[in-house]
Amino acid sequence: xxxxxxxxxxxxxxxxxxxVVYLVSTIVALRRITAGLDDAIAGVVxxxxxxxxxxxxxxxxxHDLDAGVSLLEGLxxxxxxxxxxVGLIDGLYPGAGAEGLRDVPDSATITPPRIAExxxxxxxxxxxxxxxxxxxxxxxxxxxxxxPAYGSLAARDLYDDVRHTKPDRLPRSPLIGADSPVQYDPxxxxxxxxxxxxxxxxxx
Amino acid sequence: MTLxxxxxxxxxxxxxxxxxxxxxxxxxxxxxxxxxxxxxxAAARAGSADLNAAGLLVTTREQVNTTIGVVxxxxxxxxxxxxxxxxx
Lengths: 204, 88
What we know:
The structure holds two protein chains of two kinds. Chain A has eight helices and no strands. Chain A has helices at about 5-50, 55-80, 80-90, 115-130, 135, 150-155, 185-190, 200-204. In chain A, α2 packs across α3 (about 80-90). Chain A is elongated and about 160 Å long. Chain B has one domain (about 1-80). Chain B is about 85% helix and about 0% strand. Chain B contains two helices and no strands. The mean pLDDT of chain B is about 90. The chains are: A mainly alpha, B mainly alpha. At the A-B interface, α1 and α2 of A face α1 and α2 of B.
């Protein structure tokens, strides 16, 4: 065989060998791709199967919540009126009054009355007086006057008297008569507040 | 004889490199796809795992239904207790 023929055979064998090596490597890579796609498809199928009932459930939840919102809005409007209801909502959630009530479309045009401010002042007043223990606990101006466990005793602090402080000596009862130490002068006291007892004056 | 040598030269210097280059390109592309497919599969598995909590929505629906029922009962009581607004 001539030398050129041998070289050609070697070249062809080399080409075939290269083709075989690279094609086998490519086949291996494609098999890995197939396995990876099978894994991905399994994951996607899982996502689809798990998310299938989500829409229906969320729709049911929204339906129930819509019913609750309609119920509460209707009750609020029935009890407080549309304007006050909008004002109350706007007071609790500033700016929410502009959106109005869902079931009362015209409520969006109502200028919310400043109910919240009135309620807040009243609430703080009650808190200071100790007549709303849960609110008084959150009073910003010092501790609440009312003690929930001893409410009747704490209520005595509301009165301008010193008896609840249990002093050692209380002022005696006022004497009446011409020789009493405190004389009633109609020219000074008619139509005016009663004079304070000495102990009360000291306390105030 | 000369033509045979020229053919050998072309086969070794031209055909073989071209075949090798083309096959290497195909292999490189296939290898790159393997990594991408692996990441896609991992993302799909993670997404599927994240949706395991979707079953709790059934409980949420029941809880919301119960809560709305309680609110409705409470609202009905308030409707009886509180006076209606003037003109309402």
